[in-house]
Amino acid sequence: MRNYVQPGNTLTLTAPAEIVSGGVVIVGSIIGVANGDAANGAPVDVDTVGVFRLPKVSALAIAVGDVVYWDSANKLVTKTASGNTKLGVATEAAANPSPDVPVRLNGAF
After folding, report:
1. 76 contacts 98 by C-beta, under 8 angstroms
2. Chain CA centroid to CA 66, Å
3. DSSP label at residue 1
4. Can you tell me the distance from the alpha carbon of 29 to that of 27, in angstroms, rounded to the nearest whole number?
5. How many other CB atoms are found less than 10 A from the CB of residue 41?
6. Distance of CA 19 to the CA centre of its chain
7. Is pLDDT at 18 greater than 90 in this prediction?
8. Count of beta carbons in the 10 Å neighbourhood of residue 39
9. Is the pLDDT of residue 109 over 90?
10. Can you give the pLDDT at residue 1?
11. Considering only CA atoms, which of 95, 14, 3 is closest in space to residue 58?
12. What is the pLDDT of residues 27-46, one digit of tens each?
C-alpha cells in the first residue's frame, strides 16, 4: 500500500506551550500525552492511545467507564463536558478525594 504513513499511536507535534513529560497536549482536535519535555514551539512526541494515570479534581468521584474530559485551565481530569476537551474513559474507579485516575485516551479526534 503506497499511501500508508504510520499507525498514528504516537505523533510528533509542535508543542503549543511548554510541555512536561506525561502532560496532556492538545493541538487542534488532537489530544494525547507527551513522551518528554518540550519548549513552546519545539517538536514533542505525543501518545494518542493507551491508558495513562492523570491528575484529577481531588473532590471528584469517578467510576470505571465514566467519560472524562480535560480541563485545560486547571490541567485536571473532570467529568464536566462544557468548556472542556473529551479525553477518554476511566479504567479504574477514583474516590473522592484522590489525586489521579487512569484514563484510556479517546484515540478519535
Report:
1. no
2. 15
3. -
4. 6
5. 11
6. 12
7. yes
8. 11
9. no
10. 82
11. 95
12. 999 999 999 999 999 999 99
